[in-house]
Amino acid sequence: METRNNQTVAFTGHRKERILQGSGNDSRILAQIREAVTGVVTELYGQGYKEYYTGMASGFDMTAAEAVLQVREEYGDIVLIAAVPFRKQPLWFDAEDQLLYARLLERTNRVVMVSENYHKGCYLRRDEYMVRKADMIIAYWDHVPDGGTFYTMNKALESGKPVINLYERMK
Cα torsion at 59, 72, 159, 14 (round to 10°)? Predict the structure, then answer.
């Protein structure tokens, strides 16, 4: 069996609005999620996980990217890869998230543009790409059986990939 030096993780989770709605609009939830991701990434680093894919959506994806960059300050060989579903994705964000997106993209090691233009299914195509690349998935899924996070979780489980659901850990 082939042993890889850098094992790979992909993130999947809800958009900011859904996360906030589920927390009674408590804005501290994103900081709590970032702290939880930081802990898991630090733990996984010790197990050889050094590559991290983020889909760069507003909410969990960008919060997870912030956490990876924080851990990378201590462990400089961590690689953050942005799997962007389409080039103009940030135009769909509010002004605050557009700025965060730009700051994060500048600090990633690599950007993969999954589709040049928006089309129906481009987010799912991005999700499938990340599941193929990953050895493990870190999720923030609220157990509601619909949406992209649910789809991605199912794809990962069908592929036999382990999933850590931070939503469960944080409740």
Answer: -10
Burial of 53-92, coded b for 16+ CB within 10 Å and e otherwise, reads: bbbbbbbbbbbbbbbbbebbeeeeebebbbbbbbeebbee
Q: How far apart are CA 16 and CA 90, in angstroms?
A: 14
Torsion-angle region of 15 (φ positive above 0: left; ψ -120 to 50: alpha; else: beta): beta
Q: What is the pLDDT of residues 118-127, one digit of tens each?
A: 999 999 999 9
How far apart are alpha carbons 150 and 144 in whole angstroms?
A: 7
Q: How large is the average pLDDT for residues 20-37? A: 91
| Of the candidates 37, 45, 24, the residue with the CA atom closest to the CA atom of residue 139 | 37
Alpha carbon distance 64, 99 (integer Å): 16
Task: State the greatest distance between any 2 C-alpha atoms of the chain, in Å, as a whole number.
Answer: 48
Please report the pLDDT score of residue 25 as a whole number.
82
